[in-house]
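Possible regression after last week's pipeline update?

I re-ran a chain I had predicted before the update to compare outputs. Posting the input and the new output here so someone can diff against the archived version. Not blocking, just want to make sure nothing changed silently.
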Amino acid sequence: MKNKKNLSFTFIIIAVILGVTLYKQFDFENMKFEKTGLAIVYLIGFAISIFVLIKNYRNRAAK
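New output (post-update):
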């Protein structure tokens, strides 16, 4: 159980960092990212971290 809490904390930190980075890279005036390729990589990592967090939350709620 302790290992899952550490894993969740790690993915929360990753999600926050990637979310802030994506927000900073987005140009709201032109409605596009400054570096599109890097933004795609960040978005994939952000989506994976959110998916793992939701999956862990559902497993914890089921128990």
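Follow-up from reviewer: compared with the archived run. DSSP finds two helices and two strands in the chain. Marking as no regression found.
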